[in-house]
Amino acid sequence: MSGLLTPDVCIIGGGAAGTTAALALAAMNIPTVLVERGEVGRGAQAQTEHAAFLAAAARAHVVRTARRFGISSSAPKVDWPAVRAHVAQAAEALAPNTSAARLTALGVQVIAADASFVDHRTVQAGSHTIRARRFILATGVRALLPPVPGLSETPHLTLDCVMTLEEMPKRLLILGQGPRSIELAQAFAQLGSRVAIVGASPLADLAVEWREPILASCRRDGVMFHEAAVASVRLEKSGIKAELADGTQLTAGHLLVEAETSQEIEALRLDLAGVRHDDRTIEVDQRLRTSNRRVFAIGSTAGNPAAEAADAAIVIRNIIFRQPARRTDEHLPYLIATDPPYASVGLDEEAAHRRAGVIRIFRWPYHDNARAQAEASTSGHIRIVTDARTRVLGVSIVGHGAGELIHTWAAAVKHRRSLAEVADVLATYPAFSDLGRQAAAVLQVEHLTNPRVQRIIRFLRLG
């Protein structure tokens, strides 16, 4: 069926951000059309695949390090087809949640086609003309290979294509320095691959106190870091050879490339919609509106690939409920899923100082936590940044379970809770979540040693 469609909302892009928005709109019975030329929900599946692969590698690491618990075991035998089956099964189990079939059943009209604007409020998608009240752009990004001589002629994989490997790499070379490259490098090393990663400054966006524990752990797992630019790559009989700017030559059986990204916006013809953009980004305000007030952009399309669900909620509140909801990255938790993992939320020390003037910093090492000792996971620490009244402004954690622990602190940052209020929540003992209470112990010491409190205590002792 073709012709003119007049939904309340037209979503262009069926990745994680687009499907999240579509599911929410469907739950409210809002007439919605979703246009996606490829597989609907593929973005969410890729995230699940990545997590499942890291989980498989973590299990191999547990077996390899069981000796420290007094348990003897041989080196883990990795069955690569079984690893791939586990990853596929995890993704397939969740695929129906964001599939085109489910969206259709919930009332969303899904169109498999390319989309392009005709004017400020009209989109052409295949044989359909869509004139909607509001549009949500969630087209995601596409990979751009770095300009390395010889790369385009050399067999290689990008980060999202790991599970297409027919066999586990014996020697793997990774060109990249971002979090996902580091995560995959460590995972392959834990599974038994010899991994070399090349990048001028790995995890450069992290402060040294967070970056070094991660890189040190990767090195212990066997990852070799080469902090130099790649001069060229080529395929030889002995394998793939990379020559670095410092003269180092590396040879591997497989090459994995962390590609740069560019938004998939060329075909949208945004100029006809009056949407301001350049070659790589779409201009949005804090409410995620473009220069065309009928058009919104979310997730990667709005420059934040980690904010799919949050962005979808913001846009829906603006579109449906007329609430001036705004994006703020301060409340958005961030995770690097290495071993140990790193997680953060809120402001760092510098930003907190600009915001609050006087700040306080509380730290506690994993080494002094009972659960960390019990599980031999003593590497890491928590840092809590507060204002002068000890309201939590930002938290960073590197250590076991950081990705789960950060959620409590995200709530504290969002609702402006004091450190004492968070620490007052009792945890089971022993627990990693007790780290916050331990870090707050200095507050209790300061309070109890206060001269006024000491006078009260002396008076009560005499009663």
> What Rg do the Cα atoms give?
25 Å
How would the global form be characterised?
globular
> Count of helical segments?
15
Which range does the strand content fall in?
15-25%
Instruction: Look at the helices and sheets and give the structural class.
Output: alpha/beta
Please mark out the parts with pLDDT under 50 across 5 or more consecutive residues, or reply none: none
Mean pLDDT, to the nearest integer, reads 90
Largest sheet: 5 strands, parallel
What does it look like?
With 463 residues, the protein is of the alpha/beta class. The protein has 15 helices and 24 strands. α1 (16-27) links the parallel β2 (9-12) and β3. α1 (16-27) crosses α8 (308-319) and α2 (42-64) packs across α3. It is 33% helix and 23% strand. It is globular, with a radius of gyration of 25 Å.
List the helices and strands and how they pair.
Elements: E1 3-5, E2 9-12, H1 16-27, E3 32-35, H2 42-64, H3 80-94, H4 100-105, E4 109-111, E5 115-119, E6 122-125, E7 128-131, E8 134-137, E9 141-144, E10 157-158, E11 171-175, H5 179-191, E12 194-198, H6 208-220, E13 224-226, E14 230-236, E15 239-244, E16 249-252, E17 254-257, E18 260-263, H7 270-273, E19 295-297, H8 308-319, E20 334-336, E21 342-346, H9 349-356, E22 359-365, H10 370-374, E23 381-387, E24 392-398, H11 402-414, H12 419-423, H13 435-439, H14 441-448, H15 451-462
Helix pairs in contact: 1-8, 2-3, 2-5
